[in-house]
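To whoever picks this up:

The nightly regression suite flagged Cytochrome P450-like protein as changed. Nothing in the input moved, so I suspect the structure step. Input below, exactly as stored in the fixture:
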Amino acid sequence: MSTPIPRPKGVPFLGNIFDLNPDNRSMYSGTESSSSRGQDSQKSLCDKKRFRKYIGGPIVEIRQAIHDALFTAFDHKESWAISHRIIAPKLSQQAVTQWFDEMRDIASELIEKWNGLGADNTISPMAELNRLNLEVTTMTLYGKRLNCLSGPEHPMFQAMEVATSEAMRRPTRPGILNWLVYGSKSKNANATMRRYGAELIDNRKAHPTTRQGVMAALFEGKYPETGKSLTDSQVIDEIVSMPIGSSTAPCLVSSAIYFLLKQLHIMALAREEIDTDVGSGEFKQEHLSQLKYLEASVRESLRLSFAAPGFNIEPIPSNDKRPIILAGGTYQVAHDQAMIVVLAGVNRDPAVFSEPLKFRPERMLGDAFDSLPPGVKK
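Regenerated output under the current build:
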C-alpha cells in the first residue's frame, strides 16, 4: 500500500494555497508537475527503463532559440537520436581529455589577469568565470578564440542571460503579455546567440582544419541508421546549446572557492595535495587522477551548491495506465505525471548525510563516496 507524497500541512478547503509563491510557480502547458527531494525516490526516478527527460515549461521556451538541440529535443524524435549519436562520443570523459592543455592554458591566462590586478582590486568570480567558460567552450569545442577574458563583455553573455531568464518567466505570464511586451526582448537575445553560432560556422568554412572535435562531428557526422547529417541551422542549434548547457560550471567553481575560503584548514589540505603531486612543474592531465582530496572538495561543493537545481522527467508512455510506483512502493503518481527532481533536497538528505549543511570533503573520498546511494551522485 503506497502512502501520499509528503506535502506541507494545508488548511481546510483551501489546501496549500497560502504556501504558493506566484513568482515561483511552474506552468507546464496545463500539465501538473510534482517534485522529488529525497534520494529514495530519486533512485526510482533515475531508472531510464521507466522514465525519460521531460520537455516542458522553460525548456520549451528555450527551444525558440535552439530548437531540437541535444538537451531541448524530445527524446522520442529522430532529431534527438541524430544529434546524440553524432555529438555524444565527442563529449565523453575520454574524448574531452584531448583538450586539457587548451583548458589549462586559457585558465592560466585568467589567473595571470587576476595577478596583474594587484591586491587592492576586487573581482566578481561569477563574471570572470563566465568569461572563462565561454572562452574555453568556444575554443575547445569549436576551434576559435574569442579573446573575451578581458575587455568589453561578449554579446553572448547578455543574450544568454536574457534568453534563460525569459525562458523561466514566460511560462508564468499570459501569452498576450509575452507577445506584446516581452516578445522583442527574447527575439533579440535569440538572434544574438544564433549569430554567434553562424559566425563560428563561417570561421570553420573559411579556415578548414584537420582538428577532430565537436565542430568536425557537427559538419561531417552522419546518423548511422539513415545516413542523415545536420543542416547548418541544426549545427547552430547545437553550437548555441553548449554555452547555455555549460553555464552551471562557473556556479560550481565559484561555490567551491567560497566553501574553501570559508574553511581555510580545508583549503590548506587541498593546496598541500597540489604542492605534493604537481609541485612547481607544469600541470598535466595525468595529475587530475592524483588529486583525490581536491576532487572530493569539488564533489562536496557540487552537493551543497546544486549548481544545476534539478531536472525534469516523466514516465515513458505505455498502454498501462496504472499509477507509477516510486521508492519501492512507498509512493505513487499518475501514469503521465511530470516530475522535477530537486537536487537541493536530494543532496542534503539527512538520511544519507549527517550534518548535511556542513562542508566535509571527506564524505566524497574513497570508500565513503563509493558507499553513497546512487541517487545522491547526480
